Amino acid sequence: MNKDVPDDDASIVYYDGDYPSLEIGEARADHAATLARLGMLGDVPFYKERAAEAGGPVLEIGCGTGRLTIPLARAGHEVWAVDVSAAMLDQLRAKLAREAPEVQARVHPVRQDATALDLPVRDFRLAVIPFNVLMLIPELAAERRALAAAAAHLAPGGTLALDVMNPLTLPMDAETKPSPSEPRRSPHNGNSYIRNTMASRLDEGQCQRIHGWYDELLPDGKIVVTEYGFTWRMIFRYELELMLESAGFAIERLAGDFEDAAWTVDSRRMIVTARRAS
């Protein structure tokens, strides 16, 4: 998560409701529809396949609350789960406490900044930067440092897999009229809530402020309103390719979804598989 987002920001508190898991906790019928709207449907199986192909421990940069970490560990993979947010890592540890001991033993939560990553393991066969994490480092030079750090922790010939939004499908002008989400359920208390989203105009650095508030319905009928906000940086296709190449990666595949469809200007996401030079 963006290192400038405070640990008590509502986007962290409601994260698991906004981006539900089909594998952790109680999956509801509407979860798949939510993930499909976000272009995320199939992301966890995609990364599990990459891990199975690579073998060995996995470096996950931007693990958040464990939406990918725990399925990887359940599948038998050792995971070094890195995030800059202490609150998100606390949620990951709480989830791990409910897992089998062998799953818990495979996960190493680490609080570090992706742009200054320094782990004792430097021969990973696979590093993953999932679900817009690179966009949440909202400065070009810092993004390049994060990719260079990922490369430095991979063995020669190791694989990097990542996904980000396709900016050509995103609004770049200011959105001052709040856009409400479908009703969702808080993973912490089961209360119904709605996320209301606005956005600033894209600035000269390709950054955009996403902000708004959550309306949570309490059992007594009262509504609790909590504001949130974070900044992301839109990354365009050839910019991403140049960033990866300058960090020492050779791009093997650019897909437009997690079913490996060819990327087009209308694709919701950019899903990249790249290999560190030998």
TrEMBL record:
<dbReference type="GO" id="GO:0008168">
    <property type="term" value="F:methyltransferase activity"/>
</dbReference>
<protein>
    <submittedName>
        <fullName>Ribosomal RNA small subunit methyltransferase C</fullName>
    </submittedName>
</protein>
<dbReference type="InterPro" id="IPR041698">
    <property type="entry name" value="Methyltransf_25"/>
</dbReference>
<dbReference type="GO" id="GO:0032259">
    <property type="term" value="P:methylation"/>
</dbReference>
<dbReference type="InterPro" id="IPR029063">
    <property type="entry name" value="SAM-dependent_MTases_sf"/>
</dbReference>
<keyword id="KW-0489">Methyltransferase</keyword>
<feature type="region of interest" description="Disordered">
    <location>
        <begin position="171"/>
        <end position="194"/>
    </location>
</feature>
<keyword id="KW-0808">Transferase</keyword>
<feature type="domain" description="Methyltransferase">
    <location>
        <begin position="58"/>
        <end position="158"/>
    </location>
</feature>
<dbReference type="Pfam" id="PF13649">
    <property type="entry name" value="Methyltransf_25"/>
</dbReference>
